[in-house]
Amino acid sequence: MAHRRKSIGIQRIAAYATIAVALVVTLFPVYWIAANSFKYDIDIFSIPPQWIPANPTSKHYHAAFVERPFLIYALNSLIIAVSTTLVSVVFGSLAGYALARFQYPGRWRYQISFWILSTRMMPPIVTIIPLYIAFNHLGMLNTKPAVIIAYTAFNLPFATWMMKSYFQDLPVELEEAAMVDGDTRWGAFLHVALPLARPGLAATAIFCLIISWNEFLLALILTLTERSQTLPIGIAGRVTQYNTYWGEISAAGFTACIPIMIFAFVVQKHLVRGISFGAVKG
Amino acid sequence: MASVVFQDVVKKFGTFTAVSDLNLEVRDKEFLVLLGPSGCGKTTTMRMVAGLEEVTAGEIFIGGDRVNDVLPKYRDVAMVFQSYALYPHLSVADNIGYPLKIRKVPQDKQRQMVMEVARRVELDGLLDRLPKQLSGGQRQRVALARAIIRTPKVFLMDEPLSNLDAKLRVQMRAELKHLQHELQVTTIYVTHDQIEAMTLAHRVAVMNKGVIEQLGTPRQIYNDPRTLFVAGFIGSPPMNLIDGEVKDGVFTSLGGVRVDGLGSANAASAVLGVRPEDIHVLPAGSEKTNVMAPIYSVELTGESTLVTLRAGAALLTVRADKNFVGDFDQMVEIGFAPGRVFLFDRQSQDRVDF
C-alpha cells in the first residue's frame, strides 16, 4: 500500500515537472518580448540579462504606435483576420454540413472531401506567383480584399473539414425530428444542427483567426503599403538595413498577442463538448 | 385523420432491397403495428411515410394525397423516434412547443398549448429543464408530447418504448394505447417486440426481409399464422417447431413425435408447430400421448411452469400447471391439443392446410 502511494507521488511530481518545463519553454519568449518592450535599447542587450526592466519606459510603444503606423497595421490585421474568419466559418459550416449529411452517388462524398483537403497539400509558397499575377491583373494588389480572398482560400478547406466532423458527430435524428416537426432542411440546419455544433464553430473560428492573424508570407507578397500591410509585415519591417529596432518589435509583437488571447478566453467556454448529451439514449 | 396507403412500394439502398413490393392500407384511426426482426424493413417503411427516405418505386398516399414528392414538413405527420431525438439545447417547454414555433403559432397560444399537453403527459413542473436533466421515462414523455401537441394526420412511432426499463415499458404501453384511443389519430408503430404488437395493435403486419408475411388482428396472427416465420416469431415462449415428415396425415419426427389426424397431408419435409400452452402433460400410459421425452429443464414463471423436454434433436416447451413438479431427465408424456396443431412446408415455409 505504502509502496503504491509512493509511486503515485513520483508520477505526480514527474507530471508537474513536465508541465512546468513546457510552460517555461512556451511562456518565456512571451515574457521576454513583454519585458524587452519596456526596456531602453541598451538594457535589451545588457549582460548579464536584465530579467526585469530596471527603468521601465513606454518609448517603444510611442515609437511604434504614434510615430510609426502600427495602429493602422493592427487595424488592417483585424479587418483581414475577422473577415477571413467570418467567411471561412460561414462557408465552412455550409460545405461541412453538405458533406456530412447529403447523399452522394458512389464514393463521391469521399472524393469531394479529399479534393477539398488536397488543395492544402502543396506548400502555400508555390501559389504565390500565380496569386500575385492574378491579383495584379485584377488590380487588387495591395488591397485588403486580396489578402482576405487568399487567406479564405487557405482556411476554407480546414474549416470545412472541421465542421464536417462536428456535424457528423451530431445524431442525425435531431434534424430529422425537426423536419418532421415542420422545418425545412435549412431550418433544421439553422435551428438544430448549428446551435449544437457551437463548440465546432468556436474551434474553427479560433483556428482561422490565429492563422490569418499570424500569416506572413502571402501578406508580404500581396501588400506594399500601410493601405493593406498587416502587423507581422509591419513588425518585420523594423528589421532594417542599418538597424534592428528590437524595442519597437517587442512592443508591437507583445501588443499583437493580446487580441488573440482575449478572443481565446471569450470563446473557450463554447469549446466545451457534451452539449448534445441527453439528446438521444434513455 | 387519414388513411395511409402503400401501393407497390419498393425501397432500395444501392443493390440492397430493404422493402419489396409493399401493398398495405392503414385505415383511418387505426393502430397498425409493423412487427419484425431488425433489418426487416419496418423502420424504412415508416421513414418513407415521414418523408425521411425517398421511395424507389411505387406510391404512398396519406389521406388520399400522393406524398412521394412531398417534403416532410408538408406531410403533417408526427414522429416519435427510438432515441427520442429531443433537442438538447432547448428546454422541455421549447422542445414540446417546437412544432408550433415553426408554424408561427402566436406566443401565448403556444404557451397555453404546451401547458395543456404537458399536463396530459404529466410533465408540468419540468418545463424549464433541459433534456439531459430528465430520466428516460420523462424524455419519452417529452417526445410523445411533442408529437401530440398538434393533431397530425398520422402518428409514426419507431420503437418508442425500447429504451425504457421493463416496468416503465409496461406502464407506457398502456398509456400509449389509451392516448391513441382518445386522440383517434391513425398510428403506425414499429417494433420488434411481439408483446407490444399484440397488446397495442388493431392490426399487425408481420414483416420479414422486406415483405409483409401476414397482416391481421393480433388474434388472427397468433391463432392462425400463415407462414413458418410468423408462427416462430409470435408468442413467448415461441411456438414449438418440429421437423419431420407427413405421410397420409400422420406426422413423425426423428425425436419420436407422432401426430395423426392431419387429414390427407403428405410432405417429405414438413414442420409441425404447436404452442406451449396447447401441449398438456398426460398421465403415464395415456392413449393421447404424442411423445414421451425426458425433462431438459423446468422453469417456474409464477402463473405457470415452463417444462422443456428433449425429443431427439428438438427441444419442446410445454406450459404446464404452476404446481407441476418434475426433475431433470424424468420421462414425461405429453399430448397436443387437437385442432391446435399447425403444419408447414419446410421448402415454401407456407402453412399446409389439412
Automatic annotation (TrEMBL), chain A:
The chain crosses the membrane at residues 13-34, 70-100, 112-133, 201-225, 245-267. It is a multi-pass membrane protein. CDD domains: TM_PBP2. The keyword ATP-binding does not apply. GO terms for cellular component: plasma membrane. Belongs to the binding-protein-dependent transport system permease family. This is Carbohydrate ABC transporter permease.
Automatic annotation (TrEMBL), chain B:
The keyword ATP-binding applies. The lineage of its organism: Bacteria, Pseudomonadati, Pseudomonadota, Alphaproteobacteria, Hyphomicrobiales. PANTHER family: MALTODEXTRIN IMPORT ATP-BINDING PROTEIN MSMX, OSMOPROTECTIVE COMPOUNDS UPTAKE ATP-BINDING PROTEIN GGTA. Belongs to the ABC transporter superfamily. Its main location: membrane. Residues 4-234 form the ABC transporter domain. One of its GO terms (molecular function) is ABC-type transporter activity. One of its GO terms (biological process) is carbohydrate transport. SUPFAM superfamilies: MOP-like (SSF50331), P-loop containing nucleoside triphosphate hydrolases (SSF52540). Signal peptide: none annotated. One of its GO terms (cellular component) is ATP-binding cassette (ABC) transporter complex, substrate-binding subunit-containing. It is a peripheral membrane protein. This is ABC transporter ATP-binding protein. The keyword Nucleus does not apply. Pfam families: ABC_tran, OB_MalK.
